[in-house]
Amino acid sequence: MATKLDLGRAWNEAMALLSANKDVVLIVAAVFFFLPNVIATLVLPSQDALTMQLEALGETPSPEDMMAVFGDYFGQSWWIYIVFGLVQAVGVMGLLALLTDRSRPTVGEALGFGLKALVPYLVAQILFGLVMVAVPLLLVAIGALINPALAALLAFVGLILAVYIWIKFSLISPVIAIEKVMNPISALARSWRLTKGNSFRLLAFYALLVICVMVLWLVVSMVLSLFSVMGEEIGLFAMAIGSGLMSMGFSTVMLLVLAAVHRQLTGTDGEPVGKTFE
CA 41 → CA 38, 151, 179, distances in Å? Predict the structure, then answer.
């Protein structure tokens, strides 16, 4: 029988884990989540420029024109996205191992594990992404061959299935980092089994977190926009710092929540959460 997830307990355990290890969490999160986002905001082309280019194409742009705009936008900076993605992936694996490994690894050992787990983690994420995208596209393609109205309906069904798949594979990170499952297929299967019977609870949990972050980001963006009156460079720097802090906060809290959810669904016993470095 599947374990029923207690959302309140999962949140409390996540916060207890953060409280007990806030210093090391802050350092690792700042290096792997905050700095990459700040640098990306300052170095990468502005998304406002992309939006303006797309708007300049008119209301019904051709696919060729849109591809040209996106190609120009990402053509010179694609490698930066890849580098930052790899850095953050190492941070995800390393931070989870640091906070949950009962052998109490040092920061260096945990990050070393993050490097070791990088390839399995990336392969699992790629497979997960392909499945999540392929299912809706396949449904839409089938519907388009039959009837446009059916295609629209199947697109909605595909969106629901994509969300469901995302929930079912949401524990890939802790499965690899905590259970040391290095086979990507096995990690996907393990995440699917662990979430059995708790999909709606997880959906509610994740949705609540995302909504809270969106509301907070809206407020923060309004405050940061005030810095733009001091000049474009100051406004950009303020936005970079603000977005970096928000990204660091959300990524860290989400990892702690995933670790707490994984602990509960696996029925892990032993020392209480929050004793990692005591």
Answer: 5, 38, 35
Report the 10 Å Cβ neighbour count for 65.
14
Alpha-carbon distance of 252 to 11, in angstroms, equals 13
At residue 269, does pLDDT exceed 60? Answer: no
178 in Cβ contact with 259 (< 8 Å): yes
Do 256 and 33 form a contact (C-beta atoms < 8 A)? no
Angle between helix 78-100 and 22-29 (nearest 10): 170
How many CA atoms lie within 13 Å of 117's alpha carbon, on the beta-carbon side?
A: 30
- pLDDT, one tens digit per residue, over 54-67 is 677 777 777 777 77
d(CA 132, CA 164): 9
Cα 213 to Cα 219: distance, rounded to the nearest angstrom: 10
Amino acid in the structure at residue 55: E
Q: Are 218 and 251 in contact (CB under 8 A)?
A: no
Quick one: pLDDT band at residue 2, thresholds 50, 70, 90?
low
Longest dimension (CA), the chain: 63
Q: Cα(133)–Cα(139) distance, rounded to whole angstroms?
A: 10
Q: What is the H or E stretch that residue 87 is in?
A: helix 78-100
Residues 6+ apart with CB under 8 A from 195: 167, 168, 170, 171, 202, 265
Q: What is the DSSP string of 94-148?
A: HHHHHHH-TT---HHHHHHHHHHTHHHHHHHHHHHHHHHHHHHHHHHHHHHHH-H
